[in-house]
Write a structure and sequence with these properties.
alpha+beta; 2 helices; 17% strand; single chain; three-stranded mixed β-sheet; binds zinc ion
């Protein structure tokens, strides 16, 4: 996997996913039309897949909920530049 992960915002609805990760290519694709809270949660989810490849989905989902909640309550938000 490349050292730097590229984050690509896309419309993914047709794939029935809000986020996807390609570990070999180092790419996170994220559905761009999510609400801010969901967008943050999805990004955390995919980042966890990058950080812990092979971790089971159940553990990823549990960590996603906790981390996204903490970040959200700390007012972490996406800004468009
Ligand atoms: Zn997942």
């Amino acid at each position: 996997m490349p050292r730097k992960v590229r984050i690509v915002e896309r419309k993914l609805k047709r794939q029935r996913a809000v986020g996807r990760v390609f570990l070999d290519e180092g790419i996170i694709e994220i559905e761009q039309r999510q609400k801010p809270r969901e967008w943050l949660s999805t990004l955390v989810h995919e980042a966890l897949h990058v950080a812990f490849p092979g971790m089971e989905e159940k553990s990823i989902a549990a960590a996603e909920r906790k981390i996204a909640d903490i970040l959200w309550r700390a007012s972490v938000r996406r800004i468009h530049q």
